[in-house]
C-alpha cells in the first residue's frame, strides 16, 4: 500500500510515448514543477516522450511555467483543455496547426472527471449548447488540423430536450500537487491555496488503471496526519515526489512562495487594503459594479472583472454586503488577478473546483462580470478566439449560460485606445485601431438569442457607453458625459444599435479618485 518515493526525474521517466497525461492546477497554482521541468528536459535531450495527449481543466501557466513545459512540436499530439490565455506557446502551437486541439468548458471537464471516476462513459449537460462547443457549430475544435477528427462532444436528445454528451478521455498518468505526504501516501493540502479537482482527477485516473504522481513539500511519519485533513487517501497514490527546491518549484502561486493570508491561515486587517489608481479599466469596473443589488452573490471572470471589481467592492467597504466568488472555489475576500488569477486573501470559504461549477451550473450566480473580445449585432459574444489565436473558454461558458445577470466589461475599441477623464466627463484622445463591435464574431462563446430565451439580463459596459441586449439587438442606454454618440459610439461600430428613447449619462462620481460612493447606487444599502 505504500507509494514509491521518486525524484522528479524518475517520475518523469514513467511517462512513455503516446500516453495521456492529466495535470491539475490553475495559473501556476498546483503546478507540479518538480516533475514538469525534468519531463521537458528529457524530451529536449532525447525526443521522448512524444505524441502525448495533454488533458487539463483550468489554464495552468504564468506565461513561462506549468503546461508551457509541454509546448514543443512532437512532444504533444493532442491537447484537450479549457484555457491557454496565459500560455503563449500553446496559443502558437494551436493557431499554427502543430497539434490537435480541443477546447471544452472548464467546469464540464471537472464534471467529466467526476463521472469517469464513478465509472460512467461520459458527462451529460446543457452547458455549451449554441456555442462553439456545440458540434452543430465547431464541436470545440480549435484549428484546421482538428476539424476532420472525431467529435469529443455529441448532441443528444434526452427526455425531449437537447443536451451535449461529453465523451470520456482515458487517462494514463495524473500529475497533482499537495503539501504533505505521510509514509502511506496520504496527502494533505495545508499550504495550498486552492482545493481544485484533485480527487475527481485521481479517481478518474484509477478507473482507467492509470498511475497517480503527487508532488509534495515534505513527508511525515505514517499515522501523524489528521484524518479530516487528508484530501487523497494513500491507497489512491502510486508515486510521491518530494520537491527538492520548493521555493522555485512548489510556490503557492507565480508571484510568491507562501503567504498565509491566501491559504486561509490568517486574515489581514482591512487597513492593509490600499486604493488603486483610477485607470480606464477601473473606470469600467466601477460602472459595471453600479449594476449590483444588495445581498447578491457574484462571479468575477479574468481581465477587468477580477482585476478591478473585487478591489472596488473592498475599497468601497461592501465586502459584507456583496459576496464575491471565483470559479476556482473562492467565496469572499479580495481576489488576485493576472498570472495569479484564482486565489483571494481573507476568504470566507473555499470549495473544491468541481462543486463550485455545480453551483454555477445548477443554481446560477446572481451576477457574473466577464471580459469580452468581440460583440456582434445578434447579441453573440466572442471571448475565446481572436485572429486565429485561441485563449479558450475557461469557465466562461459554464458561468455565463446560467447567471441571472451577465455583464460584459470591455474597452470600446482595442489596440492603442487613449482616453482622458475628469469630473466633467470623458474624452477620447486616440481611438483604438481594432473594433470590438463587429458584423460577425469569429467564434460564439455566448449566444445572445439563447440568453434572451432563458430570461437572462445582459449588458455590455465600456468606458464610454452601456448597452442592454433586447429582442431587437443591442440598445444603447447610457453614454459618458463628453462623448459624441454618432462619432465616438455608433461611428465605431460595424452595426447600428438601437438608441434608447431614455438615453442617460454616466454619473460623474465614478471619475473621483479614492472611494466614489458605490453604496449610494445600490438601492441605499
From TrEMBL:
Transferase as UniProt keyword: yes
Keywords: Transferase
MF annotations from Gene Ontology: transferase activity
Domain of life from the UniProt record: Bacteria
The UniProt record lists the keyword Zinc: no
Family annotation (InterPro entries): 3-oxoacid_CoA-transferase, CoA_trans_fam_I, NagB/RpiA_transferase-like
Protein family per UniProt: Belongs to the 3-oxoacid CoA-transferase family.
UniProt protein name: Acyl CoA:acetate/3-ketoacid CoA transferase
Organism: Alicyclobacillus fastidiosus
Amino acid at each position: 500500500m505504500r507509494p514509491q518515493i521518486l525524484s522528479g526525474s524518475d517520475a518523469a521517466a514513467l511517462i512513455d510515448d503516446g500516453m495521456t497525461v492529466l495535470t491539475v492546477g490553475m495559473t501556476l497554482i498546483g503546478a507540479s514543477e518538480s516533475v514538469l521541468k525534468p519531463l521537458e528536459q528529457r524530451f529536449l535531450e532525447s525526443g521522448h516522450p512524444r505524441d502525448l495527449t495533454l488533458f487539463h481543466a483550468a489554464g495552468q501557466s504564468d506565461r513561462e511555467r506549468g503546461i508551457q513545459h509541454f509546448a514543443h512540436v512532437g512532444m504533444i499530439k493532442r491537447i484537450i483543455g479549457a484555457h491557454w490565455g496565459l500560455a503563449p506557446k500553446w496559443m502558437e502551437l494551436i493557431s499554427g496547426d502543430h497539434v490537435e486541439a480541443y477546447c471544452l468548458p472548464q467546469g464540464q471537464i471537472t464534471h467529466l472527471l467526476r463521472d469517469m471516476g464513478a465509472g460512467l462513459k461520459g458527462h451529460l449537460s446543457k452547458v455549451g449548447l449554441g456555442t462553439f462547443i456545440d458540434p452543430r457549430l465547431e464541436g470545440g475544435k480549435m484549428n484546421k488540423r482538428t476539424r476532420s477528427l472525431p467529435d469529443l462532444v455529441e448532441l443528444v436528445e434526452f427526455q425531449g430536450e437537447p443536451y451535449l454528451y461529453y465523451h470520456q478521455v482515458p487517462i494514463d498518468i495524473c500529475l497533482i500537487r499537495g503539501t504533505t505526504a505521510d509514509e502511506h501516501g496520504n496527502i494533505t493540502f495545508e499550504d495550498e491555496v486552492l482545493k481544485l479537482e484533485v480527487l475527481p482527477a485521481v479517481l478518474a485516473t484509477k478507473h482507467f488503471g492509470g498511475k497517480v504522481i503527487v508532488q509534495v513539500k515534505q513527508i511525515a511519519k505514517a499515522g501523524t496526519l489528521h484524518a479530516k485533513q487528508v484530501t487523497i487517501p494513500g491507497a489512491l497514490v502510486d508515486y510521491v515526489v518530494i520537491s527538492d527546491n520548493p521555493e522555485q518549484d512548489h510556490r503557492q502561486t507565480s508571484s510568491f512562495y507562501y503567504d498565509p493570508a491566501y491559504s486561509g491561515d490568517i486574515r489581514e486587517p482591512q487597513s492593509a487594503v490600499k486604493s488603486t489608481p483610477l485607470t480606464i479599466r477601473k473606470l469600467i469596473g466601477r460602472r459595471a459594479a453600479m449594476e449590483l443589488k444588495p445581498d447578491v452573490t457574484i462571479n468575477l471572470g479574468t481581465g477587468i472583472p477580477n482585476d478591478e471589481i473585487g478591489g472596488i467592492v473592498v475599497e468601497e467597504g461592501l465586502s459584507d454586503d456583496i459576496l464575491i466568488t471565483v470559479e476556482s472555489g473562492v467565496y469572499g475576500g479580495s481576489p488576485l488577478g493576472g498570472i495569479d488569477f484564482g486565489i483571494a486573501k481573507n476568504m470566507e470559504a473555499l470549495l473544491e473546483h468541481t462543486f463550485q461549477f455545480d453551483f454555477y451550473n445548477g443554481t446560477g450566480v446572481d451576477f457574473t462580470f466577464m471580459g469580452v473580445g468581440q460583440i456582434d449585432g445578434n447579441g453573440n459574444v466572442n471571448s475565446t478566439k481572436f485572429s486565429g489565436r485561441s485563449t479558450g473558454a475557461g469557465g466562461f461558458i459554464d458561468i455565463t449560460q446560467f447567471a441571472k445577470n451577465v455583464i460584459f466589461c470591455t474597452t470600446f475599441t482595442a489596440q492603442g485606445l487613449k482616453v482622458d477623464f475628469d469630473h466633467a466627463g470623458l474624452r477620447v484622445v486616440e481611438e483604438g485601431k481594432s473594433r470590438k463591435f463587429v458584423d460577425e464574431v469569429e467564434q460564439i462563446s455566448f449566444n445572445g438569442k439563447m440568453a434572451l430565451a432563458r430570461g437572462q439580463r445582459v449588458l455590455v459596459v465600456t468606458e464610454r457607453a452601456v448597452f442592454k441586449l433586447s429582442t431587437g439587438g443591442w440598445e444603447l442606454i447610457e453614454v459618458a458625459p463628453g462623448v459624441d454618440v454618432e462619432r465616438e459610439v455608433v461611428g465605431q461600430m460595424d452595426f447600428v444599435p438601437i438608441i434608447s428613447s431614455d438615453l442617460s449619462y454616466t454619473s460623474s462620481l465614478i471619475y473621483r479618485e479614492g472611494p466614489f460612493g458605490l453604496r449610494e447606487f445600490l438601492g441605499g444599502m
